[in-house]
């Protein structure tokens, strides 16, 4: 897989689900960041289609054969998008802080604890082992990012060293107002005023997206490209990383204990599951059953179907950082170890998980 | 708490997802009230199963009494029951299941009332409207309960799966989204980009059903937002009593309260009432009954008109202030335009005499600190303390000319005029601490206070209030803190945070408010202040070696060693005054005191859990906040 580094030329705008119609005043339209894989894949495919001669309307058969169309990716496969930050020791991949990591601020940073399945509790889900830990008074889930080493520690069941990187160290939100002016009076046109929240990445922070299945001639079109990405046609610069550079799989070696394999699945990118497993049920494509979980509120991802000029349905995705605590039979160990993506749209980059122990 | 095996911990959510996504103050109130009402329904069901509510103390609660059909006196109009509670019962799981069922059935009844009155007759003009409605109504609430110690509920909150999801996951929402709650489809079912006319016709019909005033022409709502919006008008059928929701002042009205008070207490009162009579004769549907009585305890014609009629900027826009015969589109006929000009002239005359009303109001959100731990350690004493605090909240808010939206458990939500909002927050924090002291406990409450222009969407104001309360006051600064943010139409103007202790003088005055008052009483001072405050910010930025200022930024100046910031800022202050006033000894002394006070509230004052309560870092936003308060938010 080849990895692309995408850097904004200025700020970016990735809007949330609020209606945004021409001719209607719309205020404070929020943003989604990192953007969904549909958005980034869409930008890359549109750029490649343009380089194959497309200008507007439906794609030609030739383009569809190479790039697919809609949810059909033909031979393409993507990974990400993930965040990367230039550090003292070179580029550092960042991952959403796992939701089983709790923390409380103190003078030296954060005091942290790791949740794991506790004793059975009777609740609205039945008698289940809810995720818990000792001495977590006043602690809350940390909504920032961890680096690869810290994620590996969490996957080993250890509290990570250092601190979680807060979002504001990676990007800021900028409030921007847009309007259309009356031609004669040059005043703001009624109902054509809107305000949006743009994203500005801190210097040295980039998006990383993996791509494979593109032939070399076409792939070259991406290196050094400047392409529109997200709303308002705002631009991103694309650089191809050298082969071998990019995101490596992160997984913890797992061994059976007393004939059982206890493992965690940590969502690195959002995942769409037709049904969210309940205690005792299994995750599609994953051996064993769910014992417990730390799952965040659904991330609703939709979009705009520019060919049919209509909104794409808003689907509930399991947010990145969510953690499943699972258990399988010892003889299913190899099947467990081979899991790297779950759910639908994995070809776009969704459903990527890291494997750990509990 | 003793034996926990019979203990039920119960919560209903999503709280922010239901309350904060509001476009009008009435939506905000409706969301708070409905959530509180549904929580009360769960409590009533547990009591019906011979259970007992342990936290909060509900014995004197008027809302619960009325839910149990046992109420006397005036029906409750404020939500007083929190969305989470602790109860006990002999069969706790059975009681919890009944409580959850109770919530679902009462919610369904409210939804049915709104459907029957406003949607049923129009539904066949929509595209799968009934299906969308049921999907949203049946899949909205997240009702969680655990049996045993409270830690179980903390653990349950980490796993947001719901037993009630029809499809085993949150719903997929097709088509166009609601203009208020963007995660949900609007109920006409049409897609605007290709079926615009059908969608518009559907909503036109609904607007006619709602007599036009309750839905704006650009509002296309999901079932949840429509239920919130129309609940007040079905309340009697849905819950058994009227809720008088037309008594809810708009944000613009709250902003104008000090001005209205000044006008009505002055010799201009008759002039103002004549203006109101004129406005009533030129426009329809502009009376806001009951609002004045609720806030001022009196009736006056001038106090009962739509707040847009207090502002010439709104009067210049026919869409904000339609008069009789104002067309929906296009220009007003000549005679209507003349009447409009007449109203504007009258209002400007009043401005000449009594000044302009402020376009800014304050949204106050407060929440007790470490309540989970306190409840675990001494649950029922906490209940008693909270009950005592709750009794005080409405009085304190009312004394400060504010409007209480919600007060349940340790949570408070209120709207206030700008001038007295910080004092009100501080008085509430004192009342909270005293209520706990009376029970032999120490406890603090934190606040998120947003000063917002009425032009900033309510949703954004609520988002900011939650964000500064949770992230800035509680998380970053520590418990017992107040975070303040100013939102102008152009974005966030400044953000300031302090512990209560750092915010008040030994005489218990909120220092920022005192400084602002001093400044506003010296006309020269205000003029000078603009350059002083901005120059000071630039100076601090430069000394700290930072490139760019952002609201809420603290500057670390420890590397500057012996540099005396205080003297430097005094010189800046005098320099700003130099061209306007003579620099006498008295002025010099006053500058010393003023800058000292400014610096004292600009330093970092953290909560007691931090090793050093007072830090050396300085936040320039304290000064900007003084500037904003001194101008009473008149300049947007």
From TrEMBL, chain A:
<dbReference type="Pfam" id="PF09700">
    <property type="entry name" value="Cas_Cmr3"/>
</dbReference>
<protein>
    <submittedName>
        <fullName>CRISPR-associated protein, Cmr3 family</fullName>
    </submittedName>
</protein>
<dbReference type="InterPro" id="IPR019117">
    <property type="entry name" value="CRISPR-assoc_protein_Cmr3"/>
</dbReference>
């Amino acid at each position: 897989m080849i990895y692309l580094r995408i850097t904004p030329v200025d700020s970016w705008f990735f809007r949330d689900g609020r209606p945004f119609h021409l001719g209607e005043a719309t205020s404070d339209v929020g943003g989604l960041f990192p953007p969904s894989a549909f958005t980034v894949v869409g930008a890359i495919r549109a750029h490649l289609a343009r380089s194959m001669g497309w200008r507007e309307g439906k794609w030609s058969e030739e383009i569809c054969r190479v790039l697919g169309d809609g949810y059909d990716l033909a031979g393409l496969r993507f990974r990400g998008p993930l965040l990367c930050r230039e550090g003292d020791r070179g580029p550092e991949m960042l991952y959403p802080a796992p939701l089983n990591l709790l923390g409380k601020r103190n003078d030296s940073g954060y005091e942290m604890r790791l949740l794991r399945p506790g004793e059975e509790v009777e609740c609205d889900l039945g008698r289940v082992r809810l995720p818990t830990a000792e001495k977590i008074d006043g602690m809350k889930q940390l909504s920032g990012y961890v680096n690869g080493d810290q994620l590996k520690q969490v996957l080993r069941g250890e509290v990570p060293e250092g601190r979680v990187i807060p979002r504001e160290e990676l990007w800021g939100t900028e409030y921007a107002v847009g309007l259309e002016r009356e031609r004669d009076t040059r005043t703001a046109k009624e109902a054509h005023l809107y305000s949006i929240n743009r994203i500005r990445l801190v210097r040295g922070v980039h998006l990383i997206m993996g791509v494979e299945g593109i032939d070399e001639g076409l792939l070259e079109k991406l290196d050094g490209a400047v392409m529109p990405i997200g709303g308002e046609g705002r631009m991103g610069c694309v650089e191809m990383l050298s082969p071998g550079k990019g995101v490596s799989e992160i997984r913890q070696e797992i061994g059976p204990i007393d004939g059982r394999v206890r493992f965690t699945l940590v969502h690195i990118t959002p995942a769409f599951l037709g049904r969210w497993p309940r205690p005792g049920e299994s995750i599609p494509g994953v051996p064993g059953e769910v014992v417990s979980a730390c799952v965040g509120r659904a991330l609703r991802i939709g979009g705009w179907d520019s060919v049919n000029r209509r909104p794409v349905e808003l689907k509930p995705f399991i947010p990145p950082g969510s953690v499943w605590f699972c258990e399988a039979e010892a003889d299913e160990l190899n099947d467990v170890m081979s899991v790297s993506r779950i759910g639908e749209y994995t070809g776009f980059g969704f459903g990527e998980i890291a494997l750990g122990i509990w | 708490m003793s034996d926990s095996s019979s203990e039920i911990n119960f919560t209903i959510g999503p709280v922010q997802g239901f309350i904060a996504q509001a476009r009008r103050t009435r939506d905000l109130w409706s969301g708070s009230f409905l959530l509180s009402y549904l929580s009360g329904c769960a409590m009533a069901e547990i009591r019906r199963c011979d259970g007992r509510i342990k936290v909060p103390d509900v014995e004197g609660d008027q809302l619960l009494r009325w839910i149990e059909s046992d109420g006397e006196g005036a029906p409750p109009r404020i939500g007083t029951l929190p969305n989470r509670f602790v109860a006990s019962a002999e069969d706790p799981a059975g009681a919890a299941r009944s409580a959850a069922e109770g919530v679902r059935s009462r919610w369904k009844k409210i939804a049915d009332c709104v459907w029957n009155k406003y949607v049923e007759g129009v539904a066949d003009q929509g595209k799968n409207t009934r299906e969308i409605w049921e999907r949203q109504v049946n899949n909205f609430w997240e009702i969680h309960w655990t049996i045993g110690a409270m830690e179980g509920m903390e653990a349950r909150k980490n796993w947001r799966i719901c037993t009630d999801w029809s499809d085993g996951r949150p719903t997929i929402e097709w088509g166009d989204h609601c203009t208020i709650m963007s995660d949900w489809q609007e109920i006409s079912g049409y897609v605007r980009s290709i079926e615009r006319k059908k969608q518009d016709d559907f909503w036109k019909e609904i607007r006619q059903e709602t007599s036009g005033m309750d839905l704006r022409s650009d509002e296309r709502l999901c079932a949840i937002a429509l239920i919130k919006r129309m609940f007040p008008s079905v309340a009697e059928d849905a819950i058994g009593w009227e809720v008088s929701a037309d008594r809810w002042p708009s944000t613009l009205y709250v902003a104008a309260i000090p001005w209205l008070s000044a006008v009505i207490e002055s010799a201009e009162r008759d002039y103002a009432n004549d203006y109101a009579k004129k406005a009533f004769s030129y426009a329809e549907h502009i009376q806001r009954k009951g609002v004045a009585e609720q806030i001022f305890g009196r009736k006056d014609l001038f106090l009962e008109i739509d707040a847009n009629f207090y502002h010439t900027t709104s009067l210049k826009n026919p869409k904000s202030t339609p008069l009789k015969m104002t067309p929906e589109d296009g220009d007003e006929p000549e005679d209507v335009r003349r009447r409009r000009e007449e109203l504007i002239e009258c209002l400007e005359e009043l401005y000449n005499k009594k000044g302009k009303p402020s376009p800014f109001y304050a949204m106050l959100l407060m929440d007790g600190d470490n309540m989970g731990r306190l409840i675990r350690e001494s649950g029922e004493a906490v209940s008693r303390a909270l009950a005592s605090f709750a009794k005080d909240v409405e009085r304190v808010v009312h004394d400060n000319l504010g409007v209480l939206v919600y007060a349940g458990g340790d949570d408070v939500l209120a709207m206030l005029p700008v001038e007295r909002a910080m004092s009100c927050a501080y008085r509430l924090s004192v009342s909270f601490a005293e209520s706990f002291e009376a029970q032999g406990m120490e406890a603090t409450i934190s606040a998120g206070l947003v000063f917002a222009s009425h032009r900033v969407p309510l949703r954004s104001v609520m988002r900011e209030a939650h964000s500064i309360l949770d992230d800035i006051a509680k998380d970053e600064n520590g418990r017992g803190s107040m975070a303040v943010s100013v939102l102008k139409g152009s974005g966030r103007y400044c953000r300031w945070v302090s512990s209560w202790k750092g915010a008040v003088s030994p005489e218990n005055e909120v220092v920022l408010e005192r400084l602002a008052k001093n400044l506003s009483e010296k006309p020269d001072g205000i003029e000078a202040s603009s350059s002083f405050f901005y120059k000071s910010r630039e100076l601090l930025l430069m000394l700290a070696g930072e490139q760019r200022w952002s609201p809420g930024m603290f500057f670390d100046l420890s590397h500057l060693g012996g540099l005396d910031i205080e003297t430097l800022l005094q010189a800046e202050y005098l320099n700003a005054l130099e061209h306007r006033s003579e620099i006498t000894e008295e002025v010099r002394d006053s500058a010393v005191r003023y800058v000292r006070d400014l610096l004292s509230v600009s330093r970092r004052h953290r909560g007691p859990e931090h090793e050093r309560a007072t830090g050396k870092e300085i936040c320039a936003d304290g000064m900007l906040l003084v500037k904003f308060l001194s101008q009473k938010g008149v300049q947007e």
